[in-house]
Specification:
single chain, mainly alpha, two-stranded antiparallel sheet, 4 strands, 9% strand, rod-shaped
Length: 173
């Protein structure tokens, strides 16, 4: 049996042209031979096989960043690192979810099993923070809104003193 006959036998087992192309490519036949035997253009054979590569890459399960995130290798002080933190490349899954690397999840103490991350849209991107960090930011914003005299006394002590005054006033009546 000639190579061409073998190729036709492989192709006959498939119902679509794309299926025939895939089956012949899986049998390690060249694109040119596949195009010649199926009497199709080389471009059509290439398009089917390249589209399959793109689809396979998109549907492959993502496990975070493929390359290791690199930190700046300088003798800079902490202020430099705080101003210019390392950049991490993230990928999106097919549903639009952001895939965070396991090392980043661990470093930030974020849970991948239903944990919550707070996102703050900004002009130049998206800022992610833990719920604890978000709480601290809200507390700081409230502190900034209150007048300085609000911090001069302990509110709990002031409330207790008020209640004692009220109780003493009721006893005097």
């Amino acid at each position: 049996m000639s190579t061409e006959d073998e190729m036709k036998a492989i192709a006959d087992g498939q119902t679509t042209i794309a299926g025939k192309i895939r089956a012949l490519a899986a049998a390690n036949h060249s694109r040119a031979d596949i195009a010649r035997v199926l009497q199709r253009s080389y471009q059509q054979v290439r398009n089917v096989l390249e589209h399959d590569k793109v689809r396979a890459k998109a549907s492959a399960p993502s496990h975070g960043v493929a390359e290791n995130p690199a930190t700046y290798e300088t003798e800079a002080d902490d202020a430099f690192r705080a101003k210019y933190p390392p950049t991490i490349r993230l990928s999106l899954d097919k549903n639009g979810g952001v895939v965070l690397p396991a090392a980043l999840l661990e470093a930030m103490r974020w849970r991948a099993d239903g944990g919550v991350i707070i996102a703050e849209p900004r002009e130049d991107g998206l800022f992610l923070m833990s719920t604890d960090a978000s709480l601290r930011r809200v507390q700081q914003k409230l502190r900034d809104m209150l007048p300085p005299e609000a911090f001069e006394e302990n509110w709990a002590d002031a409330l207790i003193a008020d209640r004692r005054r009220e109780a003493a006033a009721e006893e005097d009546e």
